[in-house]
């Protein structure tokens, strides 16, 4: 299994101290978090896109460009790019620039986004969200995979023989950067990923395992129906927060203020998470909170249901010292066990000129 550290760039007041960092300090902290993830041996670092408080991650390509200059090995991801509200030409240009700056370390994750504030902010109708996602995703794939693209659609002006610049960093297999489809609530995303033989990333953030397993099962079923080799379907998974401590009691006690603050957030309310307490979420939901052995066991149980090759974790809201302690313990005692038990081909041999996913997995 491979491991990623994800962030949405939240900058809410600390639940224990009430302190809130100035924006410039939070941005510096995001870049240093990526450097720490690389130092500890994580495989990837991802920045999500949000447009509104308490998030500062409205411009992930800018943040990832800074991360690219601070790191040398770690994969760079978007988690995710809200393709439904963006111009695919701009997306192709911005992220090809990041790909060039990083020497080909970019994987792009796209989706329609689950924050209802996005659509009116960009002058779009939320009722069109799935059609927006599909049209813009397919145009983006063409812009990265072809030159002199001629295209017309419903939601933007036509293109005539357009070649976006810069082109993505040249890879050994000649392919464009990998594009993952982010999935949280609907089979529309899993269908799109299966149709184009692209990897799927399940949010796995708010609901019981069965909800996300159903979407992953649909992805695999449709993958086979489109004639792709079932062995090549690739799945990644997020988690509902992560806090690893030497004992389960310590992990629960330390994480509780963060969980309580999250449970009151607009995101939690919008996603209607059914869990009634931290203990309920740990026992029946996606929260990775506990001792190293408990986290290993829980990720293993999720792998049995999802068959995922990449596991992402988030430490949103923790201060630097606490975040380092959690990530160090995860890197030292959780990741090695799961790497041995659950091999993954994702990003194998993907150096600066390598592809994100091996050709056999595409």
Automatic annotation (TrEMBL):
The GO terms this record gives for MF are: monooxygenase activity; oxidoreductase activity, acting on paired donors, with incorporation or reduction of molecular oxygen
Residues forming the Luciferase-like domain are 1-308
Keyword vocabulary terms for this entry: Monooxygenase, Oxidoreductase
Record Gene3D superfamilies: Luciferase-like domain
Enumerate the InterPro entries for this protein. Answer: Bact_Lucif_Oxidored, Luciferase-like_dom, Luciferase-like_sf
GO annotations of cellular component type: cytosol
Superkingdom, taxonomy of origin:
Bacteria
Key word Oxidoreductase present: yes
Q: What is the name listed in the Swiss-Prot or TrEMBL entry for this protein?
A: Luciferase
């Amino acid at each position: 299994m491979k491991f990623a550290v994800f962030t949405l760039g939240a900058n809410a007041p600390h639940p224990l101290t009430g302190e809130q960092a100035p924006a410039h300090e939070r941005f510096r902290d995001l870049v240093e978090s990526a450097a720490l993830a690389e130092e500890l041996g994580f495989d990837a670092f991802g920045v999500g896109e949000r447009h509104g408080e308490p998030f500062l991650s409205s411009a992930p390509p800018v943040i990832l460009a800074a991360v690219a200059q601070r790191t040398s090995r770690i994969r760079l991801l978007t988690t995710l790019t809200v393709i439904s509200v963006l111009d695919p030409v701009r997306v192709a240009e911005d992220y090809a620039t990041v790909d060039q700056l990083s020497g080909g370390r970019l994987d792009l994750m796209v989706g329609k986004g689950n924050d209802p504030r996005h659509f009116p902010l960009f002058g779009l109708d939320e009722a069109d969200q799935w059609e927006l996602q599909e049209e813009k995703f397919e145009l983006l794939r063409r812009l990265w995979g072809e030159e002199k693209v001629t295209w017309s659609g419903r939601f933007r002006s036509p293109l005539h023989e357009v070649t976006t610049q810069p082109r993505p960093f040249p890879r050994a297999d000649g392919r464009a950067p990998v594009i993952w489809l982010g999935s949280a609530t609907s089979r529309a995303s899993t269908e799109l990923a299966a149709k184009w033989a692209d990897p799927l990333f399940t949010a796995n953030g708010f609901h019981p395992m069965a909800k996300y397993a159903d979407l992953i099962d649909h992805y695999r079923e449709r993958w086979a129906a489109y004639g792709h080799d079932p062995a090549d379907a690739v799945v990644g998974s997020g988690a509902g927060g992560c806090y690893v401590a030497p004992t389960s009691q310590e992990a629960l006690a330390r994480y509780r203020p963060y969980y309580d603050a999250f449970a009151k957030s607009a995101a939690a309310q919008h996603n209607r998470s059914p869990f009634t307490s931290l203990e309920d979420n740990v026992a029946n939901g996606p929260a990775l909170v506990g001792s190293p052995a408990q986290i290993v066991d829980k990720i293993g149980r999720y792998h049995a249901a999802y068959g995922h090759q990449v596991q992402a974790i988030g430490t949103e809201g923790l201060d630097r010292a606490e975040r380092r302690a959690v990530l160090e313990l995860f890197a030292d005692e959780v990741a090695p066990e799961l790497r041995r038990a659950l091999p993954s081909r994702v990003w194998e041999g993907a150096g600066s000129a390598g592809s994100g996913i091996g050709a056999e997995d595409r």
